[in-house]
Automatic annotation (TrEMBL):
Keywords: Membrane, Transmembrane, Transmembrane helix. One of its GO terms (molecular function) is cytosine transmembrane transporter activity. One of its GO terms (cellular component) is plasma membrane. It comes from the Bacteria. Gene3D superfamilies: Hydantoin permease (1.10.4160.10). PANTHER family: CYTOSINE PERMEASE (PTHR30569:SF0), CYTOSINE TRANSPORTER CODB (PTHR30569). This is Cytosine permease. It comes from Salmonirosea aquatica. The chain crosses the membrane at residues 63-87, 108-131, 151-172, 184-206, 226-245, 266-289, 309-330, 351-372, 378-400, 412-434, 440-460.
Amino acid sequence: MTPDTTLAPTPPVVQEYEREPVPASQLKGWKSFLGMYAGEHAAGTEFVIGPLFLTAGVSAFDLLVGLFLGNLLAVLCWRYLTAAIATDVRLTLYYQLEKICGRRLVTVYNLANGVLFCFLAGAMITVSATAVGIPFDMEMPKLTDTTPNGITWIVVVVAIGAVISIIAARGYDMVSKFANIASPWMVLVFLACGVVALKGLGVASFGDFWDIFGEGREPFPGQIKYTFWHVVLWSWFCNAAMHIGMSDLSVFRYARHPRSGWTTAAGMYVGHYLAWICACLMYALYIRSAEAQAMLAAGQAPTVAPGPLANNAVGIAGLICVLVAGWTTANPTIYRAGLAFQAIAPRFSTVKVTLIAGTVATIAGLFPAFAMQLLDFVAVYGFILAPIGAIIVFDHYFAGKAGIIQNYAEKAGINFNSSVLLAWLISMAVFYSISAFGGVFLSFLTLPAWLSCGALYLIFSKYSQKKL
């Protein structure tokens, strides 16, 4: 008797259109992106970045006005560059690059892109772990910690990483739905944390709030001093890989209209403005404690572990918010990393490569250094990936004017476009050297490196491309 297999469950097929334009039937309205960006950017990173601004000695003006301007510039980049190109070509970043760079060269970029995304997602797993570990009396990572500090930490990080990876592997729809459900509640908790912190700090007027930061102060041990322009440029380019780096082509290719790019403002002004400031206030309250003062007296920077800070402010609701906040950032980040790895190995399904990306992110999450040094890591990560976005922008808008062939690698049938590699390496080498040897803040050099890479690409292509 032949066994009946007709009732056997069929695994769901996740179609992400990795190597073809997204069809009109799959396009999504602006609400889908609103929830995703609000959830991703009012999320785990905010619990770490907010306090780090205070450790950098920012003034009240630097924080309020600098963040407003930097986030506005980021939104404009998403709307008029990323979303505009994404809705025109409707391809992932990786497939669009393959058309310009050739398969062999884009493999190098995809590997770097995917690994860096995994490290960022790992930092968010670290954030969530600081909440889950509190009931287990887990030792929290310090600002200077780089390696795991115990078996409890390892178990908690691995468990959280597994759950996040499974959600991300279900595809864009699952990532978007999770963000839409979680983000409204998280925003309320961020606000509650800020209100409680204000009460604890004795703030009764805007003047009292201003006095918390005043004219700024000396940075904490091991941190650099942030001025107004540090805040503006860092907040503009902390997501440089996503907007001017064109990574979010992979997201906005689903948008019906480039106007969906404005939805990034929900992430910037709820997350990268309101949530950063609320997290900063929680840390300001914490550093007045006897524990924090003792650490400062000993020449150490007090911990910025999000779990204890949120628990101190609003209790269990704060812990749940930190846990979920890490998820809503790590989910789309692992999803992007999976797309990068899938472009390297197209024979593997998106589900499999996303699970691989989640595994790498979980391993990274075991090391607190990525979260505790998030300001520096995000600046480096944006600086490395952003210039490649200039290749796409300049090829899309200026190829005809410069007299070069658009999508040259595809049309010429080549696997390696040397013009792209030279433009990318020269731009990074020159401007990173200025930062490293000249002591210039790296975010000051992200835009010059981006413009340089685009211009060099046009120049090199002019002399290297053959007529077809």
